[in-house]
Amino acid sequence: MKKLAVFFLLTIFAASCQKEEESIYTNNELSYNLYKSSDFDYTGKVTVRELTSGGLELRIEMVGEKGGSDYFFPAHLHFGAYDSPDSPTAFLLNPINIKDLTSVTKLGALSDGRVLDFESFKKLNGHIKVHLADSGPEYQIILTAGNIGSNNNDPQAFDPSKITLCSPYY
């Protein structure tokens, strides 16, 4: 019984000495759907999380066929809705790895110089596109797309025939 009591006290002491892990995230989080936008069977989700530093992290998780090679799908944050005729690139996101179909990007200053916080991201007039390739004819193939921020992201509002192509230049 003594051994059990000593073990119990040592466990409590050890637990109280360990530094509690601090989360790098606040409780602020948003999610947006990425919709199938070509003959390739990919969909996805973008999760925006606020960092305790005030910055933002965007995580893209795609659903579809994974691969075993080193191949990456380029992803861009654009100004405007996905069907806007002129939607310049706002930020180059980290590419999606075909092996696990995920990407994580800490959002920095946008191409217009703005740095977004969580509240301003919710009001952003923007969208995200994921391309098949970063150049050549495959660049024009949009695997998934979806509005973000203040734009309508409902499935009923998405029409892949209205997706505009984007310039490969930042």
TrEMBL record:
- Name of this protein: CHRD domain-containing protein
Domain of life per record: Bacteria
